[in-house]
Amino acid sequence: MLKRLLVLVASAVLLASVTAPAVASHRPVEARFATFNASLNRSNAGDLVAELSTPGSAQPDVVAEIIQRVRPDVLLINEFDYDAAGDAAAHFQDNYLARPHGDAKPIHYRYRYVAPSNTGVFSGFDLDNSGEAGDFPPGDSFGFGFFEGQFGMVVYSRYPIEFDSIRTFQHFLWKDMPGALLPIDPDTGDGWYSDEELDVFRLSSKSHWDVPVNVGGTTVHFLVSHPTPPVFDGDEDRNGTRNHDEIRFWADYISGAGYIYDDDGVYGGLTNRAPFVIAGDLNSDPFDGDSIPGSAQQVLDHRLVNTSITPSSPGGVEQSILQGDNNLVHLGDPAFDTADFGEAIFGGPGNLRVDYVLPSRNMRLLDAGVFWPLESDPLFGLVGTFPFPSSDHRAVWIDVRVK
Predict the structure, then answer these.
(1) Which residues are bridge partners to 101 per DSSP?
(2) Domains delineated in the chain
(3) Per-residue confidence band for 1, with pLDDT thresholds at 50, 70 and 90
(4) Distance (Å, whole) CA 92 – CA 64
(5) Is 299:320 a contact under the CB 8 Å cutoff?
(6) In a 10 Å sphere around its CB, with 0-12 CB exposed, 13-18 middle and 19+ buried, how is residue 217 labelled?
């Protein structure tokens, strides 16, 4: 029933061409997949819809221009506030993506998908153990948010989305993952969450979606999510352990794990070596930052994931040198950085690689990049430095051959 409702909501926000037949050809097709945490989140429910309902708002204009210059065929945007009617997603297409920005040409996505997020959904429990349930609503919600759907997601695609086959995992319980890294209260040695809390606590801080896209007659599973940052907690590391297991979910899913169930109650992960692309702001750098060591490697080192090319940029290297501080002692290659989080002197971890687009090995990886120009590049103004004109994250893309 839930799946049917999600499909109806998604269908309601599509353009008329959504009903066009899927591409029948099975010839190899080259496609660009991308992820972009675009910071299109606002302070109140409805604010983003109102802002995008007319063209010309400064930050969405810059975000749209970056997307127009990257020109992905299939795109995930993280931190895009959810509304049930999908109005924000429709307005962004019509009033920003479909309008030229300088010499950047409009880009048109015939298909899009939005669905609910766990952010701002009150659990009814004192999840942050502050002493009272609901005294700080974001801390006692299933995902951090001041209203339901804040920091949500949207998928745009030039290729047909197979709406009847979408799987969402918003309600999957953390305790139902075998060997889950459930946090321990360091003061008592007991579990941070009570048994009653674990009976309702959801693994995903936003949601996990399997959005199948028909690319030239081949179904590619676009596996998208936005795990919680592994910070803003205490010695119990409840966000770090959750981040680890949110990433692990996809590693298990592409392995066909039988324990996984979706929001329709259907069990199992991917089967028959189905092509996939894992995408999103995973909030975990392989070498630096505060995530549990090995978190990102769960997908980066997976036997079914193609990492033959790592997305990179010249701007990441330049900014690491210019900003200095803890960036200079990072273990990771700054060419692979995807986010500018500020340096230790300001309480930040420095620049990190946290945004990923990872294809399956049964697709050929042709090229990849991070949209982070040099300061001498006329396009540098689209990313800038703090306060950022667009986002503290950079768009990441890959080109694959699908057959």
Answers:
(1) 104
(2) 2-402 (3.60.10.10)
(3) very low
(4) 8
(5) no
(6) middle
